[in-house]
UniProtKB/TrEMBL annotation:
It catalyses: thiamine phosphate + ATP = thiamine diphosphate + ADP. It comes from Veillonella denticariosi JCM 15641. The gene is thiL. Pathway: Cofactor biosynthesis; thiamine diphosphate biosynthesis; thiamine diphosphate from thiamine phosphate: step 1/1. Reaction mechanism of ThiL seems to utilize a direct, inline transfer of the gamma-phosphate of ATP to TMP rather than a phosphorylated enzyme intermediate. This is Thiamine-monophosphate kinase. Mg(2+) 1 binds at residues 49-50, 127.
Amino acid sequence: MQLKQIGEFNFICHIQSDTIYNPDTVIQGIGDDCAIYNTSEHVNQLISTDTMVEGIHFSFHYMMPYDVGYRLMSANLSDIAAMGGTPKQVVLSVAAPDYIDTDILDEIYRGIKDQCKKYGVNILGGDTVRIEGPMVWTVTIIGEVPQGCAVLRSGAQISDVVGVTNYLGYAATGLSALMYSLDGYTMTKIGHQRPEPQVFLGQRLRDLGVHSMNDISDGLASELNEIASASSVSIVIEEKAIPLHAETYALAEHLQTNPVDYALYGGEDFQLVFTAPKSLVPQLQDMDGISLIGEVLSGPTVVQMVTPDKTVKTIEAKGYNHFHES
């Protein structure tokens, strides 16, 4: 059935079930002009918004509708993770053509709901409108962090170590494998289609006392430059320390590309990059999914990378940019 046949109101009624996963915080959910929710004591609220446009952020050539919803929520959850926060509530809106099959929308919402359920995030409402053109999804997410404990980009300090979570370049590897219709690359294809935000690692890093943090949505190069700029520091990383998956090395060899470029410029891994005092190194080294890749220095605001042959390269902020002129 097409969206124009069921109508906006009926579709909203159709999808509003199974949207509250933490009822203790909700006074009024979907069904009124505004939602009403309670906040915890002694917390700061976090709020972020993100938009995904069909043909720019996702394509049904490489993703199932369920994956679109899953990935949409991962992107928003990752923003909360980057602050060391706990996600609590979302509102979401979709602009869709009236000829869209409601089965596709149902599957997108199923991906959204599964991610919300996993992290205990309530869906409080949103909007559905008709558009002439590709679908546009917008999510606003609200989270909490203990008062004064949010981890900012601007907190990096001289002599900090630089760390990242899990593998980088994972999603870009999977997308390239899908675009070239390559067999195999099972793990990284899933990494592109259903990336997992590092909510719990973000909270643990906050509790340990890391100084700064950023989520890796636009590529490691871009995120490191954001930290360096916000903190007025210089950052140097070791290329050989950047954690890459075996599938990334295999793809790079197949396509005759540089494997580290997938981590630096690929983006959409939704992992975390952080800086921490050296006193935390033993604890960080004992944590699963943590790699230490560099350090924070004084000097001009710049990010540099030492290659295996000891060449020092300046790493520009060349991750994905919506308004970049090619």
